[in-house]
Amino acid sequence: MTNAALFGLNDTVIALLESGSDVNGRDANGWTALMFAALEGHRGIVKALLATGAEVNIKGKKNGFTALICASKTGHAEIVHLLLDNDADMEIKDKSGKTALEWAKLDNQISVIYALTNKKIGVEAKQDDTTPLELDSHDETAQIRPLLGRGAGKDAKKRGDDRALMTAALKGKIAAVRLLLNNGADVNAKNERGNTALVAAALGGYTDIVNTLLDNGADINIRNKKGKTVLMAAVQSGQIDTVQVLINKGTDINLKDNNGLTALKYAADKGYSEIVELLLKAGAIL
After folding, report:
1. pLDDT tens across 13-66, in order?
2. Residue 7: inside a domain, yes or no?
3. Which residue among 120, 136, 160 closes a domain?
């Protein structure tokens, strides 16, 4: 049954359950079908296993993972909710000493972080009072706002808020960006490559977010580990409107990266003639 759960074979799993197979049977590493289904995001199989009495808090022998840790690590928020509703213990630690929440933060699984934290502090997003910040259910503020508004921000800020800001900027979520900034996210926090939320917004051409980040103190000339600037990111992705915004805001257009290349060189190499013209008019040096 574990293999069927791993590969998402719903009919096979159901047939095995109906034939009396052990719902809590384990493979050689001590993993159950529920763990595999949670890991791979097979929601229908998870529901079927839970309905048939799957034990939700069994730990694997090799790494000590539970089904909740599996779903949290891989970002399957709907399955996290299902497991929590079936008494999954979010305080269980694996053999490395990490809980489901710690794995979600480590792997930057934003929606899972909010699901677990809301559960931990005893609130649900849908119970929060409506404010002018609240948008439709598709907006990330529906998950972020209740978490920050109920005092869970300090711990989340240390490990999650700065990454959440970068994710929101990368996805063009202006309301989420504003909310995170208002709650203290570091506008100049860098990821492992040295990029910031401003770089993420520039890559996507989200000029409204670029302006918002700059208005909140983002360093317009900040560099990543390769020495590349925000302007270079905008140029390389062909975001001419963002290039214009950055020029208007006073970016240093003649900075060079670690290889001695400028934004103008990148634009020329890409064949972006309009951006080349724009940079030259702004004083770019050949």
Report:
1. 999 999 999 999 999 999 999 999 999 999 999 999 999 999 999 999 989 999
2. yes
3. 120
- DSSP, residue by residue, 70-137: HHHHTT-HHHHHHHHHTT--TT---TTS--HHHHHHHTT-HHHHHHHHHHHTT--GGGSPP-TT---T
Give the separation between CA 198 and CA 212, rounded to whole angstroms. Answer: 9
Q: Do 274 and 240 contact (CB within 8 A), yes or no?
A: yes
Residue 158: inside a domain, yes or no? no
At 245 the three-state DSSP class reads helix
CATH number for position 70: 1.25.40.20
- Give the Cα separation of 271 and 285 in Å (integer): 17
pLDDT digits (tens, 9 = 90+) for 247-258: 999 999 999 999
Please state, in angstroms and rounded to a whole number, the distance separating the CA atoms of residues 128 and 96.
Answer: 35
Task: Give domain status of residue 68, yes or no.
Answer: yes
| Domain's final residue, options 120, 141, 169 | 120
Residue 261 belongs to what domain range? Answer: 187-286
59, 38 Cβ separation under 8 angstroms: no
Q: Give the global pTM.
A: 0.52
250-264 per-residue burial string, b: 16 or more CB within 10 A, e: under 16: ebebebebeeebbbb
**Cβ atoms within 10 Å of 24's Cβ, excluding its own:** 15
- Whole-number Å distance between alpha carbons of 82 and 93: 19
Query: Could you give the C-alpha distances from 10 to 42, 52, 55, in angstroms and in order?
Result: 8, 14, 19
Q: Is 207 contained in some domain?
A: yes
